Amino acid sequence: MLTIRLATENDMSQVLQLIQELAIFEKEPDAVEVTIEDLKNDGFGTTPAFTAFVAEKEGAVVGLALFYYRYSTWKGKTIHLEDLIVTETARGNGVGKALLTEVIKYGYTKKVKRIEWNVLDWNTPAIEFYESNGAAVLRDWDVVQLNEQGIQNYINRLGDANF
Questions:
Q1: pTM for this structure?
Q2: Which residues pair with residue 86 across a beta bridge?
Q3: Residue 163 has what pLDDT?
Q4: Nearest by Cα to 36 from 47, 60, 54, 20
Q5: What gap in Å lies between CA 88 and CA 96, rounded to an integer?
Q6: Pick from 136, 72, 143, 129: which is nearest to 100 by CA?
Q7: Residue 159: which pLDDT band, with cuts at 50, 70 and 90?
Q8: Over 70: is that where the pLDDT of 103 sits?
Q9: Does the 2-117 domain belong in CATH 3.40.630.30?
Q10: Is 71 a catalytic residue?
Q11: What residue spans define the domains of the chain?
Q12: Measuring CA to CA, how many Å separate 67 from each of 104, 135, 161?
């Protein structure tokens, strides 16, 4: 029996395990810096930075959909699905579809104009899953980021007079 429900603070240790499993899958095993305390503080503090649904089977969290609001200057309120993770042992059993459905239903009730997310270009099973469920995979956009060191370098270039 699979249950999809809103995540709680008590789920964060299992959520972190899923995040670490995703990092290994995405060939970035050492990239995870977030801690259980970060997840608890950021998701369940006075101004939560994210909302999450978990998929639970036989008392274990086997999937996660973590998302947050964004604002499109063209469309208005949107949701960014940061990660949709299903543990390797639970893949192919409808867990991902159940989580995606819950996020879409949530967005629908909140009247968002768009739900968006990123997928690695080599993750063919995920791309096929998303497209088979009606999502458009936009291949003409590049993701742009400044990591923590990039932010620090930018600030350093500003100098004291501009900060």
A1: 0.92
A2: 63
A3: 66
A4: 20
A5: 11
A6: 129
A7: confident
A8: yes
A9: yes
A10: no
A11: 2-117
A12: 11, 17, 37
